Amino acid sequence: MKGQGTVAFLALDVMKELVTSHTQSVFLKPGEVVVTRTPLLVSTVLGSCVTVTMYSPLHGIGAICHAMLPRCGDRDNDLRYVDTALLHIYRKLAELGAGKELEVKLFGGAQLLEAAKGASAKHTVGAQNVARAKAVLASLGLSIVASDTGGFRGRKLFFCTRSGDVYVRRMHHRKSPGSEELTS
């Protein structure tokens, strides 16, 4: 995904070129966040988890989180949860001077398990993560300018903190050896 709302899905050769064009890169694991002014290429892999990126073009600050579950309950500092992670990166950006000019993008929330594919879409962990992210962002007065959520395939995501650009590569998912590829 590049710019405000345009989706760029990467071919393997383009993905390799993107990675080699950056001098510093970081792999983001579930429950981790990055908030930085330093130009980085942050990558992560998503299934039912969600990633939210925030970028301040005014201040040149980028932030990203990788959250696994929708609500933290009483675990205030646990960044594995959508609500806690989003509030954390928003506060950090505000401390660095960013405000409502943030470009916000949302990704992930796939239904990867066979049992989830037969379940009601709103009850899967992925769908709950996406819904919670949207609710928290709305409560902060932030609009999502681009997203790629749901479906039945995971995603490999690259976030360029120097520009706010996000690139997505959909993962191939097979039910079993020799079966047909699932598409979304």
What does this structure look like?
The protein has about 180 residues and is α+β, with helices and mostly antiparallel strands. Strand 4 and strand 5 (about 60-65) form a beta hairpin. The chain has a single domain, classed as 60s Ribosomal Protein L30, Chain: A (2-Layer Sandwich), CATH 3.30.1330. The chain has four helices and nine strands.
Largest β sheet strand count, sense and barrel closure: 5 strands, mixed
Q: Which shape, going by the Cα principal axes?
A: globular
Q: How many discrete domains?
A: 1
**What is the succession of H and E elements?**
HEEEEEHEHHEEE
What topology, given as strand order, has the largest sheet?
2-5-4-6-7
> Which regions have little confidence, pLDDT < 50, spanning 5+ residues?
1-6, 176-184
Which CATH top level class fits? Alpha Beta
Query: CATH topology, which one?
Result: 60s Ribosomal Protein L30, Chain: A
How far apart are the termini?
17 Å
**Radius of gyration using CA atoms only:** 16 Å
Q: How many DSSP helices?
A: 4
Mean pLDDT: 84
| CATH architecture assignment | 2-Layer Sandwich
Helix content: 10-25%
Count of β-strands: 9
The share of residues in extended strands comes to 25-35%
Structural class, from secondary structure content?
A: alpha+beta
